[in-house]
Amino acid sequence: MPALAIAAVLCGDAATAAEAIDWEAARVRMVDEQIRARGVRDTRVLDAMRRVPRHLFVPEPQRARAYDDRPVPIGRGQTISQPYIVAFMTEALDVAPHHRVLEIGTGSGYQAAILAELARDVYTIEIIPELAERARRTLSSLGYRNVHVRVGNGYLGWPEHAPYDRIVVTAAPEKVPSALLEQLRIGGLMAIPVGTGIQELLVLRRTATGTETLQTLPVRFVPMRGTPRE
Ligand code: SAH
Asked: Does residue 81's CB lie within 6 angstroms of at least one atom of ligand 1?
């Protein structure tokens, strides 16, 4: 009985502390100190990152860490990416309001929400059903109707809605999956971490005759799972 009482008091304290956090102020600080300070200047991206309530994409026990300058665990060994990396990739993709965007690796659904603020439609694929289901619930509770979540193997893309104007891959394959390149519109851009261990974040443009590749940052995403079936 005394042990239970103590547990209740501790939970009460934790809840009060969490409620006291000013999430909007935390977002403004995140954008200024982590994102603008590192050179992201696209105001549409900065505004989206100030608007989307990142803490709601993070499981309750981690919520107070949601605006930290690092990835945060979301369960099943996966993480929501560091805010700066989300901003960097989104800026690199130069998303326009008429774009249809494909994301591989829904995870928490946060990157999809940022894209949904900027694009017409976002199609996102997650291989772990439980994460896909949670992301779907979070996105729909926030009113995002232009994000379409599907459980599947992202190596294969989502051919039914191709071609995509933009593709973002948020788990790292060893090389660029050919199905994703095929589903990218000519002139379209793809941001993708490639390699094992420390990966290189590549930004590719599909041209009429092939691809142009820009190496940007060294990054560390979770490895992409499943069979490439190349
Ligand atoms: N974009 C996410 C973070 C991604 S973490 C966010 O904003 O929260 C990488 C995610 O990719 C994990 O959820 C992992 O389960 C998923 N993943 C790994 N391999 C995959 C594959 N082959 N197809 C689809 N999703 C995959």
From this structure: yes
